[in-house]
Amino acid sequence: MNVSTIIPALRAALDTDRVRDDAETLAIYSHDDTPGSCAPAMVLFPHSHEEVQAIVNIARRHHLPLVPRGAGSGNVGGAHPGCGRARHRRHGMRKIHQ
């Protein structure tokens, strides 16, 4: 998995500012309340069902593990990304579409 080839595809699917790989964002999303941390490769901010589908398809093609995140307040590692994986934040998504 080469992150530098995946990020352009993700930026084409989402607005460029919603695919973040800067050090500050990675540090924020590297942990929950569980001790320890491990920085993700990137953090994605989809706003719609279609955008989630797009990032899942891109991740699948590139064998990139995706780790969903809500508010990040987990106390048992549920929001812990694992090193080199992609986080996708769902906090602003309010509806379930079937």
Descriptive tags:
98 residues; alpha/beta; four-stranded mixed sheet; 4 strands
Describe the protein in words.
It is built from three helices and four strands. The chain is of the alpha/beta class. It has a four-stranded mixed β-sheet. The radius of gyration is 13 Å and the shape is globular.
Element layout with pairings:
Layout: H1 3-13, E1 19-20, H2 23-28, E2 42-44, H3 49-62, E3 66-69, E4 86-89
Parallel strand pairs: 2-4, 3-4
Antiparallel strand pairs: 1-2
Q: Uncertain segments of ≥5 residues (pLDDT<50)? A: none
What coarse outline follows from CA principal-axis ratios? globular
User: How many angstroms separate the termini?
Assistant: 31 Å
Mean pLDDT, as a whole number?
Answer: 77
- How much is the radius of gyration in Å? 13 Å
Helix content: 25-40%
Give the structural class.
Answer: alpha/beta
Largest sheet: 4 strands, mixed
How much beta, percentage-wise? 5-15%
In brief, what are we looking at here?
The protein is α/β, with parallel strands linked by helices and 98 residues long.
